[in-house]
Write a structure and sequence with these properties.
By secondary structure, this protein is mainly beta. The protein is built from five helices and 34 strands. The strands form four sheets. The protein has a 22-stranded antiparallel β-barrel. The longest helix has 13 residues. It is a multi-pass membrane protein. Keywords: Cell outer membrane, Membrane, Receptor, Signal, TonB box, Transmembrane, Transmembrane beta strand, Transport. Pfam families: Plug, TonB_dep_Rec_b-barrel. This is TonB-dependent receptor. It is found in: Cell outer membrane.
Amino acid sequence: MIAQRTLLASAVLSALASLSHSAFAQAQEQTLPAVVVTSTPFNSDEAAQILAPAKVLYGDELREKLGNSLGDTLSQELGVSASAFGAGASRPIIRGLEGPRVKILQNGMSIQDVSSLSNDHAVGGEASTARQIEILRGPAALLYGSGAIGGVVNIINDRIPTVLNTKPTGEAEARYGSVDNTKNMSLSVDGAAGDIGLHLDGNWRDADDYKIPGNVSLSDPSLGSGRLPNSYARANSMGLGASYIQSWGHIGASVGVNDDRYGIPTEERSFITLKQTRFDIDGLVKEPFANFESLRFKLGHTDYKHTENLQDGTPATDFKNNALESRIELTHKPMAGWRGTFGLQTENSEFSALAADGSGPETVPLTKSNSIAGFLLEERDFGPFRVSAGARMESVERKPDAASGLAQRDFNLGSYSLGGLWAFTPGYGLGATASVAQRAPAIEELYSNGPHESTATYDIGDNQLSKETSRNFEISLQKTEGLLRWKANLYQNRVKNFIYGRTDGTKVGEDGVADPDGEFTERFWSQNSATIRGAEAEISYNLRGQGWSWRGFADTSRGKLTGLDNLPLQPATRFGGEVAHRQGPWRSGVKVLHAQQQDKLASFESFVTPSYTQVDANLSYTQRYNASDVTWFAIIKNLLNEDIRLSTSVLRENAPLPGRNLIVGVRTSF
C-alpha cells in the first residue's frame, strides 16, 4: 500500500464513499458537542460560523497536528498553507494571503511580534501550551484589525484564569520525533487559592537539523542531501497568570517570556536568536450598566527583540519592537432584536531593524506607529434569516526617526462587512458575506532600505505607497447537524493597491551597490490591483465520535495581478481524505493529502513546485491512573518519505519539508 501512493489515496476515498445510506440516516439523529469560538463576540459554537467560517483545533486533534511552529500545525486545515521557512519560522497563509493580512492573536490580543514582516521571523506564540487554536474570517475579523482580509488566528492558552477550579487541573506532555531528534516537553496547570485563579504554563523544545528524503535542491546536487543544513530549532517559553474572580466577573494579569534560537536553511547559514517578554491585563464586568451584558477591557505590553547572526555568530541586524495595545468592548443586551459589541482599540509601537554594531546600513529606521480604531458588530435574526453587520474606523500614523529624512505617513481606514444566513431547513444554511477592508502599508513596506541577512535580500520600500482596499465576496452552503456534515465556500477578493515584493534578479553588496557577485538580491515593494478567487469543500462523518469516522476535503485558490501575471507564492490545489476509528481507550487514523503541481507563477518566478502526496497516521491508547488520564501515542508524518516542497515557501527550491517522522510520546490530563 505504501509503494502504490495513488492506489492508497484512491482506496481511502473509495472507502469513504462506500459507507451505507442507512449509517447516514442514523447519524442525522445524533448531535456532536458544540465547540465555542471565543474570538467571536457572542462566543458562538463552531457550527454557527457560516458568517465567519471558523475552524477550532483542540484536544486530541490539536495534539496530533502539533508541529514545531504555528504554520506547521495549521498547514493542512481547509484553505490554510504555511510559509515554511525552516523548522523555526513558519506562519499560516490563509487563502493565499500572508503577512499583515493574517492577524495572529493570543487570547484575543495581537501577538505584537514581527513575524508579519518577513517569512524568516518566527511567531511569538506557542501552540504546545494552547487549549485551542481558532481560525476565523468574515465580519468578526473587524474586531481585531482592518487589514485582516486573510483572516484571524487566535491562540487560546487561558493564561489569565476566568473560573475557579476546586482542585488543580492541567496537562503535561513529553514527545520525541525521529526526523530531527526533537525533544519536546510542555506543561499547563490551573488552580485556585480562595478567590484567586492561578495559571502556569511552560514549553521546552530542542530539535536538530531535520532529515530530508533526497537532495536539498532538485537542480543542484552539490548543495547536499540527507539532512537540511541549518534547520535546527530551539524554543523555550513560560507563562504565569493570576486573576481575582467573583460573581460580577474577574480582573487578572499575566506575564510570558519566549527564548528561541533557530537556523535559517539558506547558503548563508545565518541563525536567529529571539527574546520576547509580554505583560497582559484582562478584566470582565458582567452587566456593568443597564441594557449591557458585559464590559471587557484588555491591556498588553510586548518587549520584543530578535538578532540575525552570521554563521560565525557575529550579530548582523537587530529587530526590535516595543508595543502597547489596549482594547475595550461593550456587549449590549438585545435592542429591537439586535445584539452586538462595540469598542475601541489602540496600538502604539516603536519598531526598528538596525545594524547590530551601530555602524552598518539601516534595514528599517526607528519608526513610531500609532493607531486608534472604533469597531461595531451587530447581529439579528429575522425568522429563518440571520444578519450580521460590522464596521471599523481606524486612524494610523507611521512616523520614522527624523534623522532618516523619511516623511511621516497618515492613513484613515474604513472597513465594513455585511453577511446573511438563511436556515432554509433545520441543520442547513446558505450564507453570503460582502466586505470592504482597508490596510495601511506596513513599516517595512514604506521605509525598508537595507540588507536582510536571513533572506539574503536587499529590501527597498516605497514611502509613497497608498492604502490597500479589498472588496471581498463569499458564498457558503453547509450542513451543521448530525454526524454527517459538509460545507462548501466560494470567494473572491478584489484588492486595489495590493502591496507585494518583487525582484528582477539584480545582485548587490551590503551597501546596495550593484555587484554581480553580491550577497543580496534586490527586492522592491510595489503596488498593483489584484484578484484572488478560490473554493473550499469538506464533508465529514462522525468526526469526533466513537466508532468509525471519515473526512474528505479540497481547496484551491489563485491570485492574479491586473495586467501582469500571477501573484507570487500562490498555494497549490489540494484534496485528500482521512479515515479514523475510536473505540474505548483506542484512537487511530490515516490521512492522505495530495497537492497538485503549482506552475502558475509570477513574472519573476521560475521554479515550478512539484506535486506531492503526504500520508500521516496516528495511534493512541488512554488509560486511567490515579484519577488522571494517561495517553500513550505514536504519530507518523510523511509516511511515504515524499520530497515535499510548499509553493508558498520562499525557500521551496532549496528547503524541502522533513522526511518520514515517527513521533512517540505520553500525555497526561488531570
